[in-house]
Fold this sequence. Notes:
It is a single chain. By secondary structure, the chain is an alpha+beta fold. Helix content is 26%, strand content 30%. A seven-stranded mixed beta sheet has the order 2-3-4-5-6-1-7, with helices on both faces. The longest helix has 13 residues, at 114-126. The protein is globular and about 35 Å long. 28% of the residues are buried.
Amino acid sequence: MTLTTWYFEMRDRAGLNPAKAPAEPVSLVRAEIPSTAFSRFLYTAVGGDWNWTDRLVWSEAEWRAYLDRPGVETWVGCVRGTPIGFAELDGTNPHDVELAYFGLLPDFIGKGFGGHLLTEAIAKAWTLHTRWPAIESPQRVWGHTCTDDSPVALRNYESRGFRVYRTEES
């Protein structure tokens, strides 16, 4: 079976096309204290149904080394105090912020939260440099998704204003 990967980018914050707000308010909270256990939980809980496997082999030291880098942030979406999904931002490359991971916990898929949470995560990506003074202002926010991911993922990214700049098949 062929795996297709789409790489997408947004080169101007003005290109963000916000999703409508969901029926229930969503708060977006930054996990300011890096926690390997919490990040591993989010990764496996969100990615379990979508074949996210690359980090399953990471040791505690590998998780810690990744999370402790200046410019790496984990943002958690919550509804009535319950985590519904997360976005992981990686601003460690000059002028780029990668939307490294994004997704919803299974119980919250299809309930109108994804577009709004993605909108908020993209806005946080564009302002990452304001929270990390040594990091330069981003000129691009980018990420990728593939056919192993949610069937609506690419449509959500494109609806928010991302444009596919490369497609790979393997």
